[in-house]
Write the C-alpha cells for this entry.
Amino acid sequence: MSTKTVTEAATAVQPSSATRSRIRARLAGRAPAPPPPGTALHNVSVATAVLLALVAIGSLIHEPVLIPPIAASAAIIHGAPRLPLAQPRSVIAGHLLCAAVGYAVVAASGSSPWAAATAAGISLAVMTVARTPHSPACATAVVIVLNTPRPATFVPLLAGSAALLVLVGWAASCARPSAPRYPAYWW
C-alpha cells in the first residue's frame, strides 16, 4: 500500500471541521454558565434567611414549619428561578395537591413506608395532570404519610410557608435588578 493511499484512507475517516464543531456543541449541552459569585452568594443568603425565618416562626408557635420539602423548594426558587418547577403555581399548588394526596393515602391505607411510596407516586401523577410540577412536593406527601400531622395545623402552615418562599423570591428578584426575574409567570 502506498503512502498516498494510507493518507487518503486516514483522511476519509476523520470528521470534517464542521462535523467536529457540531459534535462539540452537542456534547457541551446548552446549559447556561453558572451565576457569578455575587449572585450566587445573594441567592444563598436570601434562601438561608427565609428558612431561618420559618424556623423562628415554628419556634414561636411550637409547630414544625420548616420541613425538608420546603427547604428543597427554597433551593429551587433561589437556585433556578426560571424553571417551571420554581414558579408560584407549581410551588404552592404542588405542595397543596400533594398534601391532599398524602392525607387521602393515610385515610385509605394508614401510615407505612409502602403507603408513603404510593403517595409519592400518586402525587407525581396528580401534579402532572394539574400541570403543577414541583418535585419537592412529592416529599410533602411522604412526610404526611409517615408523620401523620394534624391537617388543621399542617396545611395552613404548609401553604403559608410555600407562599412565603414565593414572596421572598419575588422580593429578592425586585431588590436586585441584575438578578433573573422571578417569577417567570405567576399562574
Remarks:
- The chain has one domain: 43-175.
- The longest helix spans residues 37-61.
